[in-house]
Specification:
The protein is mostly beta strands and about 140 residues long. The protein has one helix and nine strands. Strand 7 (about 100-105) and strand 8 form a beta hairpin. The longest helix has 18 residues, at about 1-20.
Length: about 140
């Protein structure tokens, strides 16, 4: 009986610790019309609007490398998730040079302002190394 009780207690303890939400997402507080920079996985929060914007990833980076002469500037897709109160998360894609460079959510416009690091022909950018400049403006 002691063995069965011990197994149940250990099983419940392990299950609870494994399913507990880990709040390890890095967050920054920003204000409306204030530019900010996010790393992949990072969240910007505007408390007054109950609005959060998370940078999920950068995909399809075809920007012209700084050490090459190009006929086209290239582009990249910035994948964001917009979280507002109890609404379902909204996943959007905005671009660096082509439209859409911004997305409208309720009364705000979320716009891409920059992306780093710059592309280079001899270097591959790791997904975690991207930094995307954004601004949230009132419409």
């Amino acid at each position: 009986i002691l063995l069965v009780v011990t197994s149940i207690v250990l099983g419940v303890g392990c299950r609870n610790s494994a399913s507990a939400p880990a709040d390890s997402t890095p967050q920054i507080a920003v204000d409306l019309n204030q530019g900010f920079v996010l790393a992949p996985g990072q969240v910007a929060t505007i408390d007054a609007l109950a609005l959060q914007v998370r940078l999920d990833s950068v995909m399809g980076d075809s920007r012209c490398p700084t050490d090459v002469t190009c006929v086209w500037a290239g582009d990249a897709d910035v994948h964001l998730t917009i979280l507002r109160g109890k609404r379902m998360p909204l996943q959007v894609v905005v671009r660096i040079t082509r439209e859409p460079r911004s997305v409208t959510d309720v009364d705000e416009v979320i716009e891409v302002t920059s992306m780093a690091p710059a592309a280079h022909s001899q270097r591959t950018i790791k997904p975690a190394d991207y930094r995307v400049g954004l601004v949230i403006k009132a419409r």
